[in-house]
Design a protein that fits this description.
The protein is of the alpha/beta class and 420 residues long. The protein has 3 domains: 138 residues, no CATH class; 191 residues, Rossmann fold (3-Layer(aba) Sandwich); 60 residues, Arc Repressor Mutant, subunit A, CATH 1.10.10.10. The chain has 18 helices and 11 strands. The strands form 2 sheets. It has a 9-stranded mixed beta sheet with strand order 1-2-6-5-4-3-7-8-9, sandwiched between helices. Strand 7, helix 13 and strand 8 form a beta-alpha-beta unit. The longest helix is centred in the middle third of the chain and has 16 residues. It is elongated, with a radius of gyration of 31 Å. It starts with a helix and ends in an 11-residue tail after the last strand. Belongs to the DprA/Smf family.
Length: 420
């Protein structure tokens, strides 16, 4: 039996396949979605609608038989006659990966529903669809490497994104945010790239927390290659996620397509550093379009890597919020009334609790030579009795001292010298 006829027979038998009792899709559906993940590049509104209407198994049968609409068949082209679905599934299994499909209970349906709603707003005429690299299309399937469940990690997750050519400041902030979010039980999601992405992942790992890298290539193909060890650590406690099957190359256009998943799989997106034109800015705008909270870390106004951050803050329609630590991030994306950030600590001193009268008397005290209560009353603009009433309290607070000549401000290192 040829590989082609084997797939076609499996699809024919899969038409009557019923869902399994363990929350997993049947083998025919899984194989169909594996085939679809290689047959067409993700992000096409027309292709997703075709699969959604026909079902994955019937969609494969029509594409293989040449009975799909012309616009859809054009997206597949010569791939319609190829089949590497079983090879892809086996290759995934060998590297500890699996294919998660919408029919599985692990599928993060509640988070990805925003993509379904956004796709529903696309016009019926394919000529007016959003470009594939920016269209808010739900994934047909996700290749996952790692033992953790995608739905559980994504439930409380935040995207940290930023420039590849990051500064030391940006990497420090990203690492701190990743670590602090991990300590609070939140999953850090990023793209696994150089710069801010890597710093965010490493920060989460340093807190012994899970982190998710959404890749633009196969989960068995580390890119950049220098991050092979990092991806291995991520897969041990978190997940590597991709729409492309094992072995897929990291083509440039795929990075633009995958950004929508980073935005959709999380409750909010934090842009740590971004140049005037950057993928991080695009991810933030996609997050806003999907109804997600956009957050921005400010940077030096002299830094080219913070220009994009400041521009996002200036765009009123994005409603981006300035954040400086994980507590502020969690307050925006966490549970209402529960995940609240503590107010920033402010330095306090003995003057903070003084009454208006006491402040006036204190300001009237000279630095060097002591003066009488009557002189203090004239300078402070109050009665002598008021001065005599507050001076003992100011002395107990080590703010003033009494000398042979009268009252003056307490000198540093000699507080309390005049008591008694």
């Amino acid at each position: 039996m040829s590989e082609r006829s084997g797939l076609d027979e499996d699809m024919a038998q899969g038409l009557s396949e019923v869902p399994t009792s363990d929350g997993l899709a049947g083998p025919a559906v899984r194989r169909a979605r594996a085939w679809l993940s290689r047959a067409a590049e993700p992000g096409s509104v027309a292709f997703w609608r075709f699969v959604e209407d026909a079902g994955p198994v019937e969609a494969v049968r029509r594409l293989r038989a040449g009975r799909a609409p012309d616009a859809v068949r054009a997206l597949v082209g010569a791939r319609a006659g190829q089949d590497a679905s079983l090879t892809d599934l086996l290759r995934a299994e060998r590297c500890g990966a699996r294919l998660v499909v919408p029919e599985d209970d692990e599928w993060p349906a509640h988070l990805l529903h925003c993509l379904t709603l956004a796709t529903g707003e696309e016009p019926d005429d394919p000529r007016h669809h959003s470009p594939r690299t920016t269209a808010p299309v739900p994934p047909l399937a996700l290749w996952i490497r790692g033992a953790a469940r995608l739905d559980e990690l994504a439930d409380r997750s935040v995207a940290l994104v930023g420039a590849r050519a990051s500064t030391a400041y940006g990497e420090h902030v990203a690492g701190e945010l990743g670590h602090q979010l991990g300590e609070r039980g939140w999953t850090v999601v990023s793209g696994g790239a150089f710069g801010i992405d890597a710093a965010a992942h490493r920060g989460a790992l340093a807190a012994d927390a899970a982190t998710v890298a959404v890749l633009a290539c196969g989960v068995d193909r580390p890119y950049p290659a220098a991050h092979g060890a990092l991806f291995h650590r991520i897969a041990e406690s978190g997940l590597l996620v991709s729409e492309w099957p094992p072995g897929a190359a990291p083509h440039k256009h795929r990075f633009l397509v995958r950004n929508r998943l980073i935005a959709a799989l999380t409750r909010g997106t934090v842009v740590v550093e971004a140049a005037a034109r950057s993928g991080a800015q695009a991810t933030a705008r996609r997050a806003h379009r999907l109804g997600r909270q956009v957050m921005v870390v400010p940077g030096p106004v002299t830094s080219a890597m913070s220009v994009g951050c400041h521009e996002l803050l200036r765009e009123a329609e994005l409603a981006a919020v300035l954040v400086t630590n994980a507590a502020q991030v969690v307050e925006l994306v966490g549970r209402l009334g529960e995940d609240l950030a503590d107010p920033p600590e402010r330095p306090s001193g003995p003057r903070d609790e003084l009454s208006d009268l006491a402040v006036r008397v204190l300001d009237a005290c000279p630095v060097r030579n002591g003066v009488s209560p009557e002189r203090l009353a004239r300078v402070a603009g109050c009665d002598v009795l008021d001065v005599l009433r507050v001076l003992p309290a100011l002395e107990l607070a080590d703010l003033v001292e009494v000398t042979d000549a009268g009252w003056r401000l307490a000198r540093p290192g000699r507080t309390g010298e005049g008591r008694g």
